[in-house]
Amino acid sequence: MAEAARNFSKPGSEMPRSEAQAPQKSAAREYGEAFGIALILALIIRTFFIQAYKIPSGSMEPTLLIGDHILVNKLIYGLRVPDSLFGITIPGIPWGHYIFPLESIHRGDVVVFVFPPDPSKDFIKRVIGVGGDTVAVKDGKVFLNGSEMPDPHAHFEVGPQDRSPVSPRDNFGPVTVPAGKLLMMGDNRDRSYDGRFWGFVDADQVEGRAIVIYWSWDNDGAGILPIRWNRFGKIVY
Question: Which of 20, 22, 153, 223 matches a 20 to 30 Å C-alpha distance to 179?
Fold first, then answer.
């Protein structure tokens, strides 16, 4: 009896650590936590790293077509604080500004930016001029710092006989781009509402650079599934 009594714990003593069991989480709680973490990570990635956009207009044709879906690298130029957090801004935070620059914005980059006349919209265009550049358009052709600019991405739909001497589409400037500003134009020069009409973009308004087309849907195409398969994986230059 005395030997058997030694196998029992004394009243009030703790169980060995190996026998103690941690509280079990319910399946609903585990799924909820996993979903919450995934949502937070997705928001961080979308805000600071990569974001998907759909091309709604033909202003960048033929580089980007209506219905192209692209990925934009939002970290390539640095760490940019978003313009707001779900529409809310807190005083003291540099909303809409780069706080950790990594790379300069170059001429020829295809970038997404906050549209200056209406900050609720995002536009995508090509950088034509950076701070200090003098840009002019003569009969539809772009001149950079006094010389005609090599312009392999430009697309024209209007002939020389239809050019207007007073329209900024055809004749613009010369203007000098201020420091910290950019001049944007669409590749479809005759069908683009761009910097020739509304001016410069602040470098801090650039949200990222277009990198690749991951999906393309032709709304006017024939067939049940008018998918542009040849656009998939196409790098944006």
Answer: 153
Active-site option among 25, 26, 57, 59:
59
In a domain, 16, yes or no: no
CA distances from 149 to 25, 135, 142, 145, 174 (A): 65, 9, 6, 9, 13
Residues of the chain with pLDDT under 70: 1-24
State the CATH number of the domain containing residue 154. 2.10.109.10
Residue 161: the pLDDT is 87
Q: Is residue 21 part of a domain?
A: no
Rounded distance between C-alpha atoms, residue 179 and residue 65, angstroms: 32
pTM equals 0.82
Q: Which domain holds residue 87?
A: 51-235
Q: In terms of Cα–Cα distance, which of 93, 66, 96 is closest to 80?
A: 96
Cα distances (angstroms) measured from residue 119 to each of 28, 53, 96, 184, 215: 40, 16, 11, 16, 26
Of the candidates 164, 129, 157, which has an alpha carbon nearest to the alpha carbon of residue 143?
Answer: 129
Q: What is the pLDDT of residue 121?
A: 94
- The active-site residue out of 125, 181, 192, 216 is 125
- The pLDDT, as a whole number, for residue 44 is 77
- 138 counts as catalytic: no
Active site residue 164: no
